Structures are given as C-alpha cells and as structure tokens.
Amino acid sequence: MFFVGLDLGKSQDPAAVAVVDRPERPAAFRTSSTQLLAVRLLERMALGTPYPQVVERVREILAIPELRGQSVLVVDGTGVGAPVVDMLRMARLGCEICAVTMTSGERASQNGSSWNVPKRDLIASVQVALERKELRIASRLKDAGVLVKELLDMKVTVKAGGRTRMGADGCGQHDDLVIAVALACWRARRGMVGPGAQGLVPGICGF
Predict the structure, then answer these.
(1) If 0-12 CB within 10 Å is exposed, 13-18 middle and 19+ buried, where does residue 117 land?
(2) pLDDT tens string 79-119
(3) Which of 29, 57, 61, 193 sits between 20 and 30 A of 95, alpha carbons compared?
(4) CATH architecture of the domain with residue range 2-188
C-alpha cells in the first residue's frame, strides 16, 4: 500500500510530495508489531506553482501503474489548503483522499474523511519511526539529504501563554518535505486500506 503525502506550501514554501510504501509483510511475520515504511519518492515543486498544476502533478504520480488503486492521498488542509482539497476531490483521482488540518491541540479528531491532528503528532510519527529503524529513506533520492536536514532543523518553541509551536520556518528553514512525509507516515499507521501493494515502483527509487 502506498501513502502519498502532499504539503501545499505557502507563499514562501514550495509544495512537496512524498510517497511512502508500507510493504505487505510475509505471513510468517504478520504478528510482529513492527510496521516498516519506506520513502520511495520525494519531490518539491517550483515555488509559486499554481494549484491546478499541483493537482495535475499529483494525478500523474497516482497514475503510475503500481500506485493506481493502491494509494491513499493525505493532503494538508490547513488554512488555504481547504479549496485545494476540494479541487483534488473534484479531479476524481481514483483514491481515498484524507484531508488533515494541523492544530496545536492535544489529540486528533475525525470528521468524515477529514482530520484535525496536532502537528507534534505528525512530526512524531516520523521521528519515532526513524528511532525504531522502521522508516527507510532511499539514499539515491535527490532530496533525501534535504529531508534529513529539515528533520534536524525542526524546533519546538514555547510562546506566550505556554503554547508550543513546532516547525523549522521560524529558523529560516523549510519543513515542506518533512510535512509531506509526516502526513503519509501518520496515515500509514492508522490501519490497512485495501489490499497490500507488492514490490517497488518503476521510476521510484529503491534501495
């Protein structure tokens, strides 16, 4: 099964896409609590790419034969993302679309196919997977090093009133690839969706 995370970016941040593979485990290992994930594609779109072009690029990725019918699209619906989520749904991409609004709250909540999720939970889904060696990043991916740097740049700051904020943009850095991967990893850990996908995707980097 493939989970496609889409961070729509802001005026100073590019949109980013990540494809995370959750391979089907052999029957002999299905009782294991380990859930292996693999980042197969990382892509930043040019800054200022119009949203219709972002939607079209997502369509192209989801049309890869091995991803077709084996994917879930997880998109950042925070702020200006909501109208783009509507565009994605109207595009009839042939997959489940899960919209996630990032919050500073304490727990996730669901409303149909939309979720409100604390940003710290999204980032934690990546950090914990890396610590447990459950997440692999294909070293030959062009932006693999950028993703690692973004993860290292993630900061937690405490604002007035005791509110916490997690992100890299306050340090003059981007976190678009981290968010794209985090969206995909978070959804991948919420249970199976359809049949498991087998093997690697041609054109998507392996290990």
Answers:
(1) buried
(2) 777 889 999 999 999 999 999 999 887 888 888 878 999 98
(3) 29
(4) 2-Layer Sandwich (3.30)
